[in-house]
Design brief:
Blueprint (H helix, E strand, L loop, with lengths): L6 E5 L8 H12 L2 E5 L9 H13 L8 H13 L11
Parallel strand pairs: 1-2
């Protein structure tokens, strides 16, 4: 099965994404209209999820939420549910 339109998948340089099994699939994926674009090594500023995670980890989570799994899970849910309103990243 091939993709109808050319599709680009953004990939990090993580070892699991550069594994032999993954690399073996790249030519097959190209034939199916899937292109892989590799982020430059060590480029977390280009990966939006890394930016979000950095804000969650260093700006929006107090140390007390790490006391237990339930507290951490509940706080992370609160942050993600309210991202864009109560929790905002300003790129300016």
């Amino acid at each position: 099965m091939s993709l109808e339109k050319k599709t680009v998948l953004l990939m990090e340089q993580a070892s699991i994404q550069r594994s032999d099994k993954m690399m073996e699939k790249i030519e097959e994926w190209k034939r199916k209209n899937l292109e892989i674009f590799w982020f430059p090594a060590h480029s977390p500023k280009l990966n939006l999820i890394e930016i979000l995670w950095r804000f969650i980890k260093y700006e929006w989570v107090e140390l007390s939420v790490y006391d237990n799994h339930t507290s951490l899970r509940n706080h992370l849910k609160k942050v993600l549910d309210n991202f864009g309103t109560e929790y905002v990243i300003n790129f300016t």
